[in-house]
Amino acid sequence: MRRNGWPGTGPRLKAWPAAWLLMVVPLLGGTGFLGAQTGTAEREAAPEMRLTVEEAVGLALKNNLSLQAGALTLDTKRRANDLVWNQFLPDISLRGTLARQNTATTQSIPNYLTMPPTVTEVELPRWALQGNISASLTLSPALAAGIQTIKADYQAGLVTYEKARLQTERDVRKAYNDMLLLVENIALLRASYEAAERQVSMAQANYRAGLAPELTLLQAQVARDNMKPGINQAENGLILSQARFAMTLGLPYETRFELVSTPVETGFIPLDLAELIREAVRNKPDIRELQRQLVALEKNRQARSLQTRTPTLNFSWNITPVFSADPFKDTWFKKDNWADRGTFSITLGISLNGLFPFTKEGQAVKDIDNQIKMMAGSINQMIQGTELEIYNTLLTLAQVQSTVEAQAETVRIAEQSYRLTEEAYQAGLQDFLQVQNAELELHKARLEIIRQQNSYRNSLIDLEYITGLPFGTLSMWEGGN
Q1: Distance between CA 63 and CA 161 in Å, rounded?
Q2: Which residue of 33, 145, 292, 405 has the lowest C-beta tally within 10 Å?
Q3: What are the pLDDT digits (tens) for 261-290?
Q4: What is the model's pTM?
Q5: Which residue in 465, 463, 459, 460 sits closest to 476, CA to CA?
């Protein structure tokens, strides 16, 4: 059942003449569709996929390449957040060194058992073997701030990914609506071609009966034939739109879609400007993303300040076994051949550079302060821009409502005028030009309502994104079966 439905639309809608196609196609992105015949054969061979808007959203959220890249970035931040405790693990390393001196060295060994005492020169092993096991842990107040920075960065990543997901859903819904408009326009063009065929038949009958000159018949035939390029151009435009849509959904570009057109349930919804602005300030994804980034910057500033201006406590322990004999001649398992030169140390230190604002460490903190001020300014600027955006959207919706209400009466009058003119032409009382003019005015009126319907629906989808409302809260889109 229709509730507050759109007037002046229905299955009796016809397409506009070829002259008006030149105005309509650019509005629908048709200028980029020229020469889109490439891949037509592949598309015709591909099976047609029946797709509702909700199914399209589901495919996009699952297969969109940009979202997949965003998910990988979020996974990196999630792992850093889950394992943030690993900052308290000591740095453990294991090393072994086998070295050979370039020149031989000797050691003098005195012999006091002889008289007089003698000195014997003994050549020391040129090869040396040394191992090392070390562990080091540095503790600082900056560690706790660093943990908060990682957590804040993860929260910002969550908001950024959610923003990308909502943007994808918004764009898919609007693209789906635009393609439905293209499909309906093509249907109207074909209906207009059928009407032109009927007018040619009437012109032939009137010409044979002597009620119309041959010029009228030729004009009707030319008007009919001039519609064929426009229909082909519109069909090519739909092909390219579906190819782009398929790529967005992660499907092969040659996928053909059967879009599900449902009755428009959206009436003219009363909207409160102040309430929408309050919702947008709290929930708009773009604003929430900047706010989270500001929190992450503040946490980073705190960590950097503590890192450069507070002392650190380092615990270090290592074992350094040294083989004092020849590693190639003497046994490795004799205790007397080994000596441990390891140490355990506790070091308390502080970087003096961080205490002075003119050093690079001090300036790094000042740089973050400026970034925080710039981010706060960006948030305020975005809030102001959002208020203006919502105000402009409401003005657009009000204009659409006024246009549709006025255009409904225009369509009714144009339908009656066209019907009477065609009947008069068939009776030989009007010339063909009058029929063309009446049809042109009728299709202008119908086209305007169709365009306004699409504009109203897409504007509501934009409002849902801006205010953070679930899609369908305002647009009330329901996929058909």
Answers
A1: 15
A2: 405
A3: 765 544 567 787 888 888 888 888 999 999
A4: 0.71
A5: 460
